[in-house]
Design a protein that fits this description.
It holds the Pfam family YCII. It contains 3 helices and 6 strands, in the order βαββββααβ. By secondary structure, it is an alpha+beta fold. The protein has a single domain, classed as Alpha-Beta Plaits, CATH 3.30.70.
């Protein structure tokens, strides 16, 4: 089963870390990504640009309205994602719990099953 691990964290927290702390954080990410690649569980993933570069498109009065900024104001930002293919939601949650943003208290990961084309998961 495929799971999307949505990474939410507090904007700017990395800049507040010392160089040693940043190196440790990114080292943990590299280690997790290597393990998931070697186990065959990693499908993909990407970090996202700063929310200041976001544009939101919505329908207003039947017309598309484009505004700068994310969809909602919040203390956390949608910072990136991982797609994993693993045996259970428990395993996906285990991977998410190891993510340094979660472990260090700077963010959360949302674990969501990815529907297959038939949509039978709904």
């Amino acid at each position: 089963m495929k799971y999307m691990l949505l990474i939410w964290n507090r904007p700017g927290f990395v800049a507040e870390l010392s160089e040693q702390e940043r190196n440790a954080l990114f080292g943990e990410v590299d280690e997790i990504m290597k393990e998931l690649t070697e186990s065959g569980e990693l499908v993909g993933g990407q970090a996202l640009a700063d929310p200041s570069q976001t544009r939101t498109v919505r329908s207003v009065g039947g017309r598309a309205e484009i505004t700068d900024g994310p969809f909602m104001e919040s203390k956390e930002q949608f910072a990136g994602y991982l797609m994993v293919d693993c045996d259970s939601s428990d395993r996906a949650a285990e991977i998410a719990a190891r993510w340094p943003d979660v472990r260090m208290g700077f963010g959360v990961l949302e674990v969501r099953p990815v529907m297959d084309e038939a949509g039978t998961e709904m």
